[in-house]
Write the C-alpha cells for this entry.
Amino acid sequence: MAAHPQPPRWSVEAYLEMERGSTVRHEYIDGHVYATAGGSLRHSRVSVNVLAVLQSLLRGGPCQVFNSDMKVRVDENNFVYPDASVTCDARDTGDDGLTFISHPTLIVEVLSDDSTARYDRGDKFELLYKRIEELREYVLFDTRTMAVDLYRRSGDTWSLQSYSAGYEIHLESIGATIPIAECYEGVSP
C-alpha cells in the first residue's frame, strides 16, 4: 500500500504573509492552511443583518464589531475567520494596522450547510473557540430556519440556550439584547 504524502506545515509567518496578498481567505489550524468557502444568499443576509444590529448597539462605545474579513487569533497556532466578532479589549482596537484580533468577547457564526454546521458546533467551538480566555459568548444562527443557539461561559463551564422566532437574545458579554427577527430580516421562512 502506498503512503499518502502529507501537505507541508506552514509557519505562522508564512501564513500571515500569504494572507496579506491573497484574494481568498484561509484559516490556519496547527500549521495547516485551509481555504474558506463562500456562503449562500441566506448566509450573507443573516450575516449582514447581525453585523448591522451589533454595530448599531455598540456604536460609540469601547467595543468594536468586525465582519468575516477580520481573523481571530485563537492562539499561536490557530487563526480563523468567524462571520462576526466583537472585542472590547484595547489590545485589539488600538492599532489600525492589525490583521487579526486576539481577545474577542463575542463570536458569531452563521451556519450554512450540514458540514459547516457540524464544524462550527463541534471542533471549531470545542477545540478552538473555547481556548480564547476572553470569549464569553458564542452565537450560532441557522440559515435554514429561524433558530439561534447561544453558548455562554460562566467560569469554566459553558451553557447552551436555544431561541426561535419571536424571541430576543440577551448578550451579557456586550450588555445588549437582539431581537431575532431583525437578524432574519429579508430572509424568507
In short: The CA atoms of residues 170 and 177 lie 4 Å apart.
